Each structure stands twice: as structure tokens, then as C-alpha cells.
Amino acid sequence: MERCQGSVLADFILMLSEWVVKIPVVLIMGVTTTVDAPRRLLPSNALQQLRPCKFMLGSPTERMNAIVEAVLLRPCSGFTVGYKVALFLRDYFTRHDGTVTSFIKAMKIACMKHFSMEPLSFLGCGIFDEHYQSFSRDVGESLPYAMLKYAFDFPSCQREQFAERTVDTLTNGLAELKKLWDCWSSTVLCIYEVAKHSKVQLLDIVCEAHDPSLCNLRVTNQYLPTTSTDYCPHNEGFPLLRKVGVISRAVHKVRDLPAVSLSHLLNILEGHTQEMAEVHQKVRELQLALRSEDDGNNIKPAAIDLRKRSIYRSPLNVEKGSKKLNEKASILMEDMIRDYLKPIESAPFHEIICFKHVDVLQSVLIGDPRKMIQVDLVKSKNYLQCSCCRSGGILLASMHDTSLMYSLAREHGDLINLHDWYQSFKAVVSVSSTKNKRKMPKSPSKKKKLAADLAPDTSEATLQARFCRAVTELQITGLLRMPSKRRPDFVQRVAFGI
């Protein structure tokens, strides 16, 4: 903004102010010096037309964490991702592209695929609604029996032994799913408040929290360390703890927090644990203990016996009390992780809100062009939807030459004899053309006779030309390797699997 001429910018602002009633105008101006730069640059009549708002662009890491928290930890849309999808999104962001825009694109595609592939995904939107009870009652009245049966056929429901497969069981399962998800997301946010001091990404914590293989270790207390010696990379006494991740390191970090940081952490935990009454009560108790300790350290010297003053205010005693509170806070975090950090994929009916098709997302983002070309050639009838090719798997001359040639090539192995391949192509085209000529009625009209003479030519030269063009197109698409000097009568197939 400092590089602009004040009079020109003022005239521009006054001109836009005349249209602001009909068209809302937002001016984004960068300031390189101080906040009061517009006041020094613009006259008063131009400043009166402005309503300044200060904003700062966050770093890509901050934007990334904000997106992950809004989409994956705030289930307002009833959508989340599974463990493998979360790993793929993290690897795609860090190794493949590394831009926030690409991550947003991947999240949009995953959300779109989930709601288009899962018939019961509309239930996820109502789970987290304020009027869930009325929503569940409406679902119970309108959900068809086929959809109810489909819900209980989920793989997650096969692990559970439901006494009754009714709408009430489904609504109760969705309520438990919501409760599990709320506690899981709150626990992840609490862990992130500790781990972000070590510059840990929120997506790394989400990936580790989704890992179903670590759930059993958390239950058996083999996942979380109890002392700092557990973190030694060469510690042979704790083989499982040598593979600990960011969550265990975050819990260990609580033991080393100073009193000010611990107080700030407890204030944040108080807001995140509203849905967990027992944990919330323990957080309040730790806050009271920390405040009472601070008040004890701030007592006036006159109120303390001179003999005991040095003992009371000894740094060793102060440090001992603070370490005791840090230890209690660390134990509280361990209890939260063990009791509430259960992966969403372990709950029944999680398929309604959880997208787990990592292969679908990978094919869309990274793609497999050669495979898609093969699928398009084999299923060309499904794409064209023409009336002349609707005959199951029978090869017809009405098919595109390249599609017909590739279908014939699938009947051969690694090497394809050009002569046999041409004869097969010629047989299909010639037989179909002969049938069409037999069905064509005789007409005395000269115009119709002329149209019949202009029918597709099936002469030897024409067939050879069509054959060569189709082979060349298959070579260009990367499905064939042309004949070599050693074997001039054979072509080699390059792509298989379709």
C-alpha cells in the first residue's frame, strides 16, 4: 500500500463508495510498515468510507491443521476418513504435491465419493444434528426394510451379535457412534494442544489415533511409557515402546511443562472435555490444585515464620509440588487415551460416516491411465450406448476397430501372430457385413441403390488399412509393442490384467 499514490487511491475509494449500496466491495491491501499506514496515506474523506479489518495469512502448516480440525475433527457434515485413507492423504500431501490446495481437492473428492457410493450416508448428516431424536424417529418411520437389512450387513455389524435387527437398534447404534466420535475427537484435540509445542502436525496425530493395531496396546498399557527411560531407542526391556509415535511423546511432554504452560493446557482441556464428565471433573481438580499452589507461593513473608520461611520457599519444594501436578496431568492424559481414543472403525455402523475406499481415491488423484484405456476399450458399448452393439459379449463389425482389435488381442498370450490376428478381425467384419447385406431389401429406387453401393467397403485393401490403423492406435496408447527385426510377424502385448 505504501507504494501507491495517496490521491489516486483516495479517488478510487471514493468512486467505489458510490456503488457500495448495490455491490459490496472488499479491498485487500498489504501493509509493509505499520497498521496506521492508511491513516498517513489517505485523506479523512476516504478513510471515512473504509471499515478496516486486520488479518494475517497463516503458514501452510497452520492452514493444514485448521482444515484437518474443521473437516476430520468437527463432524458437522457427518463425514470422516478411515486409517488407510488418512495415511494416503498425509503421504499425498507430504511426498506427492505438498500444497494445501491439493489436500483440499483430495478431501473434496473423498467426501463426494463417500456420499455417492454409500446409500446410507445421508444418516451421517443427521447424527450430529441438534434435533437427532426427531431425526431418528423420522428415519424409523420412513426407512425401507431393504435399507435396514443393508445397514446390518455392514462388516462392522457382523462382528457384533445383535439380539434384534430393528430400527431402534440402528438408532441406538448411531447414538453410540456419535458419543464415541465426540470423545475421540476431543481426546485428539487435547493431545494436539500438548504436541504442537513440539511442532507436530495434527494430521500425524489423526493418523496414529486411527490406527487399529495400536488400540490393543493402549488397552493393555503397553503403548504409553511410564518413565523417561522408555524412550531410549536402544532399550531392550521395552521392545514395543521403541515404536512409539507422536501420541506417546506428547504424553511424556506433559511431565516437563512449566507451571504457566500447564495452567494454559488445563484451561484448554477444560473446554475440550465438556462431553466427558469424569475427565472434566479431574481437570477442574487439577486447576484448583494448581491455583492453590500458586496462591501458597505468593503468600506474604510476614505471615510465615522466619524460621520456616526458607524451607517453605525452597526451590526444591516448589519444584517437587509442580512435578507432582505434572505427573497427575500426565496420568490423566494416559487415562483419556486408554478409555476414549478408540478408532472409529471399531464401532458398528461406522461405514455410514467413514470413507475407507483408499483405492478409489488413489485412482482419482494419481490415476492409472493405461488401465483406464483398457477398461474403456473393453467396455466401449457401455459408454457409447448405441443400439447396434447391445448384444452382450458378442463381437460385431459395428464396434470401433480399435476396440474390436483389443478384444481379439485378449484371446492371445504375450505374443500375437499378426496373420492370425488379421484373419480374426477379417472374419468378424466380413460375417457381420454379409448378414447386413442379406437383410437389406431390394429397392427399385436409384437413390436407394446408390446408397447401398456407398455402404462400408469390405475389400481386402480396406480391411488391411483399417487393421493397420487400429494396430497403430494400440501402439500409441502403450498397449502393444511393434514387431522387431528378429520376429517381424509378431507383436507383443505390454499391458495385462483386464
TrEMBL record:
Keyword terms, alphabetized: DNA replication, DNA-binding, Nucleus
Domain spans labelled Origin recognition complex subunit 3 winged helix C-terminal: 370-496
Pfam families: ORC3_N, WHD_ORC
Domain Origin recognition complex subunit 3 N-terminal residue range list: 1-123
GO cellular component, one term: nuclear pre-replicative complex
GO molecular-function terms, A-Z: DNA replication origin binding
Domain of life, source organism: Eukaryota
GO aspect biological process, one term: DNA replication initiation
Localization of this protein: Nucleus
PANTHER family documented for this protein: ORIGIN RECOGNITION COMPLEX SUBUNIT 3
Similarity comment: family membership: Belongs to the ORC3 family.
Protein name from the UniProt record: Origin recognition complex subunit 3
Species this protein is from: Acorus calamus
